[in-house]
Structure formats: structure tokens, C-alpha cells
Amino acid sequence: MIPVVPAPSHPFRAAYDVERAVLSALRIVHVGQSSALLEAHRGPAAGPRAGVLVPVTWSDRGLAPGGFALTPHDGLRVRRLLLATDPGSALLDLSRWLDASGATPVDLRMAPLRIDPAATGRLALLLAGGEEPTGTDPALDARVQRALAPALADAVVQDQEARVHRLAQRLIGAGPGATPAGDDVLLGTLAALHAADRAGTATDRAHRGRAALVTVVTDGLARTTAASRHDLAAALGGSFAERAHRMTAAITDVHAVGPAYDDALGWGATSGVDFLHGLASTAQALLGHWQNRLPATA
Amino acid sequence: MSSADALSVRVFPRLYRDSVTLMALAASAQKADGVVRVGAVMATPANLAILAEAGMLPEGLAASPDDLIISVRATDETAADAALDVAEAGLSAQDAGTGERVEVLPQTLAEGLAVDATCTVAAVSTPGTYAPVVVEQALRRGLHVFCFSDNVSVADEVRLKRMAAERNLLLMGPDCGTAILDGTPLGFANAVRPGPIAMIAASGTGAQEVSCLLDAAGAGVSQIIGVGGRDLSEDVGGLTTNVALDLVLADPGTEVVVLVSKPASPAVADALLARLGSVGRPVVACLLGLEDSDGAVTVRGTLEGGAAAAASAVGLELATTSGTPEPPPATLSARGVVGLYTGGTLASEAKVILGRADVAAEILDLGDDKYTAGRPHPMIDPSARAEHVEAAGSRADVGLLLVDLVIGHGAAADPATPLADAVRAARAAAERDGRTLVVVGSVCGTAADPQGIDGQRAILREAGVLLFASNAAAVRYAVACASQPPGSQADRQEELS
To answer: Which of A220, B169, B463, B479 could form a disulfide with A172 if both were Cys (CB 3.0 to 4.6 A apart)?
Structure first.
């Protein structure tokens, strides 16, 4: 039985969302302070999983789709191991982690969630108050991508296919960061749409609009970075990182808004806040659509 | 293209760096001379279009989404290339760690809290550029912050202190040198005895001097909360001082409150004194340079005065000697008085006392940023001050040299020896010129400090330093020497013989 991600989940335990076969031949892409990015071997004998990314995380990062989350202690140990390994030539077989670590498999699919107007309103206010420049140059300013989030959400909820295509294409791969800000906005948008869709609260229009968004993002995956492509591909399938789950709670519970915003500030340079903009805009659009619909259905 | 007419671009194929690193790289490159704009983004088609639209992309440049592209527009090609070198060096520094770094300590706040979730204070000692980010993260996690980092902007300080105050958290600093929280020393601090006196200090060595004088008198401290040297400025408005006051007033172990600061903004000082006057327990405001006064708040203009008032509030008196009888005023072979200090507040106190006596003097705070650029604080590395001391010996206009020696946690293991060596060299240089250099000072510390005050004093005495129980006493002695009519003591000696 694979447990569905609790929200909020306990961040400090070993967990995984990866197939054993992927772990058998990995090369190091990057080793950071609280995560490492590994990639399935691309060599001549590589199988169909060649190039698949495996995010290994520890501390409060939580599990990422297709990844492995370690306890803080193991994380530091593994980090040292990775730093001492030649990233250019070494291939790592980490498949035994699944047996030795006591890790549990986790289903990272977004759960059905009921969007709360008060929580969504407070989140939107919080985001509006924190809009300061994110970079020293306009090219590095994530506000450009965040500003597109309400229009995209509106277009999706109203099933304006051409507008969805145009806006999503402006977001894919756009903006600062290793996962460009526009992609993080899209992740937040998809998270809200999945939550509403699974809860059965999305309208038929919104359902069709989401399908249009899925199509354009799927077609545009090659236009962004590998790390972002990995996250977006998982999101298209309905799976999100644990911290995305924690942040999505901000549109369902007014008490979760503050912690989610604090959590977002610690996610990359701008990624967490970018995600929240997509999430909040879409939640507002969905709520607005329901409210507009009420007189007609009463 | 106006004055900015050089565009340089470097592409780093399949290079992954997290977004915080990319932002930091761009920010560091942006600060280079002559730089107008910097773009550091992943080379996705959308980002290439953004760069092209901004005139930051040369025509025909090929790159793929997993490549990192750094583009610099600058006033000339040299400036653009230099900025790119800075950015590339930042990327290389990231790589330099691979293969050799062995780190066993937690690397992030989250990891630290995972090791011990009961932690309540984060000590931040990163370069100033990064400190605001780390401080904000710590505050958002509900931690008090001791920020040793300097070079943090006033705007960031105000923003973060407001955030801290809203959460009833202390942001000690930036540029905070001293704290003792529930007996745990942070930064530069002395091994002082526990007791009922809480100190809130906008000056690090000021707090050390007062706490050490109290310790020598038999009085102890409950808390020492550093607030950063700018906290009582008009811009910051005493944000942390007020939070600290709330906390010490709620501390059952605190009976007396002492505020220590270099000259504060008059408006902020007035507001603070008004609040201090109504806290319902003895309060001493040791505000350097103010006139002494007694009222609801006991105001003292020197550190020694503040320590004496605080000791009195708990029924004790300050020690008056440093272990040997004080000498009579010496005859100075030159009128010049020079102070070479490692403690900034001790230097300020010297200026106050000398100023009140109308004695002209050259007092240097060698811990000031302008003397420490690129090297450690002289309390950590005494060699910088030693050079100044030696040089003073060759100055014909200098008859008396004032020095301090600050020991305790965080200070050099044996700061007395390099100072003593420098004093010997200076006095020898003066003697070769037929002059006598009088060297006067005090040691800020306690017997329980790692260096031990008695041993440090002995080393200085052996080198001929006249030592006093406090910095103020040493300065008063300097005043007495400088105020003597030239040759008067020699005349008296001749009369006696």
C-alpha cells in the first residue's frame, strides 16, 4: 500500500518515488546543500530510462517526483560521498538504498482538495504585498512571469484555448532560475487544477481548459531545462514534490497560508513564490467561476 | 547604445546551478566597475528571446536549454570581460569543493534544527551580501538571530528588525560583537559570573568592559544582549533594544537593567529613556558622552561610571586597582597623547574623558572597517595593532600611548605577547632618540577567561605598560600626565634631592 502524501507531511524521513531500475546506473549532475541531482546513464548500453533525472533530497526539502528523500543525517553522509566522487566518469548504483534505508514509497499525486475562499484571498493578499524585484536586471525579474498567472488561470477556467496556448508558451522556460520562473508558475497552476479536478469541483470548461494547458505544456517540454522538464512532466501526470503539496494547502486552509508562504521563501531564489502565484491565481479563477455560476444554477 | 557599448557573453554548456547561486552570480557581476546590465539565465528559447529583446544577446549565438548563459553589457569590453571573470570565478568556486570537501556539520538551518530542534538562536556570520537572506530564513523559523556579519545595508537592517519585532524575536546585529544568553557566550564575550544584572548593548566592547568591571566587583550578569551599533540610530529607532527590554523585564533572573551605547540619536535616546524610567526596577543608561544624572534612570557618560552605578544598585563597589598601586603622574617628554585601541567603545570612552579634560589626543579605533579591510579584527589578530604601536615609538611628538587589551571568548589566544613585544620595540625606539614613551592601558577580561587576566597583565607589565583597573582609570592617568606643567615633576625631583 503506497501512502498518499499527507499534508503537511513530516519532512525528516526516508521516502522514495522512483523505480529500482533507474537507480542502478546514475551519474552526478549537481550536488547542492540540501539536494543532489542525478541522471540515469545515457551510454550506449543505456535503456529507455537514459537521461531520467533522480532528485535526491534531504533536510526539509521533502521528496521530489521520481526522487529519493533521505534523513538529514544520511543526507550529509551521502553528500560527502557524492562530493568525493568524480562526476565526470563515475557511475553510481544506488538501488540498494531501497532495501537498506528503510525508506517508504510515497504516492506524490495531488489529492482532491476543496479550495477555500478565505485561504485563497489571504494568500493572494500576502503575495501582492511581497512583490519586490527579484533580480538586479529585468531579465532576472520573476515578476514578469508572475504577472501572467492571473490571465493564464482565467483563460484555462474559461477554456479559451488560443489564449491558453499563447500565455503558456510565454511562460515555458522563461525567467530566472535553474527551473525558470515561468515553469514554476505553471506548476502552481497545474497543482490547483489537479486538486480541483480530483475533487470534482472543476467545471467542464475548466476541465477542458486544463486539457488544453496539458497539451501545450507537453508540446513545450523541450523548450526548458532538464530539471524543469522533469518537474513539469510529473505535474502533467498529477504528481508534485512534497513541498508543492505543503504549499497547496494554502488554498484550502487559512491557517496553512503563513507557513506555506514562509516555506515558499526558502524554495530556491524565487521558485516557491512563483509556484504560489500560479496556485493562488488559479484558485481565485476557479472560485470566481463558481461564484459567477451560482445565480444561473440556483 | 550610448555610453554602454560593449556586450560580452559566455555560454557554459550543460551546467546546472541552483537558482540562488545564479542570482548571487548575477548580483556579484553587476557590482563590477563599468557594468550596466547582467543577465544570468538558462538558455531556453524564451530566455534567449528576453535577452535579445533587451539587447543582451549577440546575433547568431547558439545555446540549448540546459546551457547557462551569462551576458554582460558594460561601458567597455574590459569591464564586461572583468565582470564575466567574476561570475565565472563564482561558478568555479562551486566546483572547487568537489572531491575534497569533508563537511560534518549541518549545512543549512533546516539541518541544524534537525540535529537539535530545541535550538532557539541562529548565529549568522556569512559575508554581508548573503546575511539578510539567512537572517530572514532564521526569523521565519522562529529563531532569535545573532548576526556577526557586517556590511548589511540600513534598509535591510530596518526591514529585518521590523520582522523580528513583529515575532517578538531578537535580531542582534548586524555587526553584533557580543552576547551572553542564559550563560552562553556568542561572539566576543568574557567568562563573567552569573548574577542579576541584564545588559542591552549597542556596543560590543562597551558591554565587555562593563561586565568585566562588574565581575571584578563581585556582581554578575543575567543576560547580555547585543543589538548592533546602529540600533539606536534614527533610522533603526531602537527596534531590537525595545524587544530586548521586553525580554529582560520578563526574565525572573534580572533585577537591574543596564543599557550601553555609543552616542545615540537624541530622539531615540529620549524615547528610550522615557520608557526606561517607568520599568519599575533600577535602570542604568550608560550612554557615552552624556552628562551624568540621577533620576528615574541613572545616566552615566562613561563605561566605568555605568558599571559603578550598576554595582551600586546591587550593593557593591568597583575595584579600584588592577593589582598594583597606581603610579604618580609621569613627566611626558612630549605632549602628544595617542590611543591605539582594538575596542571601539573603549576608544570612544577615552575620547569622552579626554574631551571633558580638554586634553587633545589622537585616538584610533583599529577595529574600525577602514583599518580591517581584508584582515581580521585586531582582537582576533593583534599583529595589525602591533604595527601601529611600534610606529608610535618613532614619533617625536608622542609622549604617552594609551592601549587596551581585550581578552575572552573569540579573542586571540595570547594577545598580550604581540602587544608587549611592540611596546618594547616602541619604547626602545623612543629611548634611542632620547625620549621616554609612557605606555598606559587596561585589560578587559576576567580571571576565568581562556587567556586569564592575571597572566596577560603580567606580560604587559613586564614590557613596561602601566596598567589600571579600567580603561577610564587609564585615561584619567593620561589626562593627569598631560595636564602637568612641562618639567614640573622633574623640578620636584630636583628639589627633593
So the answer is: A220
pLDDT digits (tens, 9 = 90+) for B52-89: 988 899 888 889 998 999 999 999 999 999 888 888 87
Residues in chain B: 497
Query: What distances in angstroms separate CA B78 from CA B6, B12, B177, one per listed residue?
Result: 9, 20, 40
Q: Give the architecture-level CATH label for domain B109-313.
A: 3-Layer(aba) Sandwich (3.40)
Any chain A CB within 8 A of the CB of B45?
yes
Q: What is the pLDDT of residue B410?
A: 87
What's the complex ipTM?
Answer: 0.87
- Report chain A residues whose CB lies below 8 A from the CB of B72: none
Q: What angle do CA B324, B327, B331 make, to 5 degrees?
A: 155
Residue B106 CA to its chain's centroid (Å): 26
Burial class (CB in 10 A: 0-12, 13-18, 19+), A8: middle
Residue B321 confidence class, pLDDT cut points 50, 70, 90:
low
What architecture (CATH level 2) is domain B336-483?
3-Layer(aba) Sandwich (3.40)
| A207 at interface of B, judged by CB pairs closer than 8 A | no
Output the DSSP codes for B296-312.
SSEEESSHHHHHHHHHH
Residue pLDDT, tens place only, A28-63:
888 877 788 898 877 665 566 778 899 998 877 789
Of A73, A171, A269, the CB nearest to B20: A269
Is the separation of the CB atoms in B423 and B386 below 8 Å?
A: no
Burial level of A298, CB count in 10 A (0-12/13-18/19+)? exposed
Q: How confident is the model at residue B102 (pLDDT cuts 50, 70, 90)?
A: very low
| Cα–Cα distance, B182 to B119 (Å, whole number) | 13
Fold match flag (B6-96 vs B109-313): no
User: Coil, strand, or helix at residue B9?
Assistant: strand
DSSP state of B181: E
* Chain A partners within 8 Å of B42 (Cβ): 173, 177-178, 180, 224-225
Q: Determine whether the interchain pair B22/A177 forms a contact, defined as Cβ–Cβ distance below 8 Å.
A: yes
- Inspect the interface and report whether the beta carbons of B27 and A59 lie closer than 8 Å: no
Report how far residue B40's alpha carbon sits from residue B47's, in angstroms, rounded to the nearest whole number: 10
**B410: distance to nearest CA of chain A, Å?**
27
C-alpha cell at A128: 501582492
- B71: closest CA among B2, B4, B3? B4
pLDDT category at A130 given cuts 50, 70, 90 is low
Q: Does A226 touch chain B (CB under 8 A)?
A: yes
Residue ranges of B 377-396 with Cβ closer than 8 A to chain A: none
Q: What residues are paired with A36 via a beta bridge? A: A31, A56
pLDDT of res. B239 = 97
A58 in contact with B, Cβ within 8 Å:
yes
Please report, for chain B, the start and end positions of each structural domain, with discontinuous segments joined by +.
6-96, 109-313, 336-483
Gap between the Cα atoms of B165 and A240, Å rounded: 35
CB contact under 8 A, A225 and B41: no
Contact A223 B22 (CB under 8 A): no
What is the CATH number that goes with domain B6-96? Answer: 3.30.70.60
Decide if B66 and A79 are in contact by the 8 Å CB cutoff. no
B130 contacts on A by Cβ (under 8 Å):
none
Residue A83 clears pLDDT 70, i.e. is over it: yes
Q: Cell triple for residue A115?
A: 479550495
